[in-house]
Please model this.
Amino acid sequence: MGGATSSSGGAPALDCNAAMPTNGTKHTGNGQGGKDNLAWQLWANNASNGSITTFSTPAFGAEWNNAGDYLARIGFEWGNAGKAYDTYGTISAQFAYKKTGTAGGYSYIGIYGWSTNPCVEWYIVDDSFNGMPVNPGMTTNKGTVTIDGGDYILYTRQTTGTGGSRCNNVSSWAQYYSVRKTARQCGTISITKHFDAWKAASMPLGNMLEAKILVEVGGGNGSVEFPVANLMAVQ
Model:
């Protein structure tokens, strides 16, 4: 079964060979639901061509078939008000997954979220269908840090479009990335350490709206199964 939920105390033991849970609920079309560290969201350009399967434990399955830009994620949703990230305690994630198929021209597997004031869409990328390390393109390299036994390249860039709904529908916002140099499919991500590294690299965050385990792809036909997708915030 998936890893245990924890909001205080130590993290549960991580099982890299965990089996997918059963009796999940499959969701199609753009939408969201759940609560606590089981809050989920699904979005795709071609909404009918992607799905997310959720469970009563912190686990999920992601599937897409020529869905365009496709995002499936599960974790903490703090709402559109949010608070400074350091008020939530020490945030981390445990994950284990297997991926199959293809994912188009770009893909990110890792952690994802938004902050406001400033408006930032942020990524911690631990794997990709296209090999690691990925470069999101048109970025500024802000250096390299070592977190959780791996080297991460820090990038920032400005982007524009219609995706800024988390920040009152802005048309321009910042993106931050921590991109691991070597891929992994199981481990712990010390999310707060990435926030601190970004701050030290002049990449500040504002009020934290969400922190979720993410699959994002730019096309293709594939799937990812996460028997463990456990977000923790420890005071």
About this structure: The CA atoms of residues 33 and 40 lie 5 Å apart. Residues 191-200 form the longest helix (10 residues).
